[in-house]
Design a protein that fits this description.
Blueprint lengths: L1 E10 L2 E7 L2 E2 L4 E5 L6 H8 L7 E6 L2 E2 L11 E4 L11 H11 L4 H14 L15 H13 L5 E5 L7 H16 L3 E5 L3 H5 L4 E6 L2 E7 H7 L2 E6 L4 H10 L3 E5 L2 E5 L6 H10 L6 E6 L2 H8 L10
Parallel strand pairs: 4-9, 4-10, 7-8, 8-9
Antiparallel strand pairs: 1-2, 1-3, 1-5, 5-6, 10-11, 12-14, 12-15, 13-14
Helix pairs in contact: 2-3
This protein binds adenosine-5'-triphosphate (ATP) and magnesium ion.
């Protein structure tokens, strides 16, 4: 649904994006991950034709965007970095002006604004001029603009900036619902916990290169898991026993942490430990979360954390 072939961008002599081959499929919620300056926003601007590529081709819905008719862009919704709203107008006034530009039939505008206000928890602020809104509520106007014309393709760059936990849940619910109805969503965010709860595919961008693209299922299979074993009085003997079995052990906050055990073998291992007379009080898997996986993929895994 959103594909690129060897997409590249230079500013003057400086190449900022190198041969990006994105593949976002219909109905995906695709998490576009990268550190500050990885060129996520630049890529999204290219996809939206806000800037021109130096090289490469972009396909939306299988069509080369160089030859797309202008009307096609009505199927695309976007929020790129900081949203803009007219400060002296209220939320519905702003959204009405935008909806008119998007050619939404007049009688549909008010109900759509109302529905979005409910979904985005904006109803208490409908009479407020946008200049008096908080950061998070302004961000929600940006989201409402991206969604008001029921786009089939959504490009959201850091859409959850400044949102409180309740709003994060509301936005997650709304985006999942959109994807279920067939909207394809490309979303960049630094909130990797938030992404983990939402995406079904992941692309990792680092220094203008797409270093990984994988499904959420692949991430779950590839992520490292470890076992933390606690409550054994003779830790060192247990560690020796496990080392003998070819497993790597370390200590983390007094727990014995074992690496290299496939998930299917947990039961067998626990049984083996107990049959040696060890009686652990806790035996728990530690799965690498998306943040730790991401840092490992970009080669910055010295601060790895686990759920
Ligand atoms: N107009 C431009 N002229 C020159 N360099 C540019 C231009 N636009 C972007 N860049 C380069 O791209 C980098 C920023 O890329 P971009 O904003 O796409 O990153 P990002 O991944 O969106 O980062 P963040 O997470 O901070 O939003 C800049 O540091 C600069 O090197
Ligand atoms: Mg950015």
């Amino acid at each position: 649904m959103i594909e690129t072939e060897n997409l590249a961008k230079s500013f003057g002599h400086k190449q900022v994006l190198t041969d990006i081959n994105l593949n976002v499929q219909a109905g995906d919620i695709y998490g576009f991950l990268g550190l500050n300056g990885a060129r996520k926003s630049t890529t999204m601007r290219l996809l939206l034709k806000m800037i021109q590529p130096t090289k490469g081709t972009i396909f939306l819905d299988g069509q080369n965007t160089d030859t797309l008719p202008a009307i096609f862009w009505n199927q695309v919704g976007y929020l790129i970095e900081t949203p803009h709203a007219y400060p002296n107008f209220t939320v519905p006034e702003n959204l009405t002006m935008y909806a008119q530009q998007r050619l939404i039939p007049a009688k549909e505008i008010a109900p759509r604004i109302k529905a979005l206000a409910v979904q985005l928890l904006l109803t208490p602020y409908l009479d407020v001029k946008t200049k008096a809104l908080s950061l998070g509520n302004n961000q929600k106007i940006g989201l409402a603009k991206a969604l008001i014309h029921h786009p089939r393709i959504l490009l959201l760059d850091e859409p959850t900036n400044g949102l409180d936990p309740e709003s994060l849940v509301a936005v997650r619910r709304l985006l999942k619902q959109q994807a279920k109805q067939g909207t394809t969503i490309l979303i960049s965010s630094h909130l990797l916990g938030e992404m983990e709860a939402m995406v079904n595919r992941i692309g990792i961008l680092t220094q203008g290169q797409l270093v990984r693209e994988l499904s959420f299922d692949q991430f779950e299979q590839e992520r490292h898991t470890q076992l933390a074993i606690d409550g054994v009085s003779k830790d060192s003997q247990l560690a020796a026993f496990l080392t003998e079995k070819g497993l790597r052990t370390t200590y983390q906050q007094q727990e014995l942490v074992v690496s290299g055990v496939p998930q299917n073998d947990y039961g067998t291992l626990l049984h083996a430990i107990e049959s040696q007379g060890f009686r652990p009080t806790s035996f728990k898997p530690l799965a690498e979360n998306l943040e730790a996986f991401f840092l490992r993929q970009i080669g910055d895994d010295q601060h790895v954390v686990h759920d």
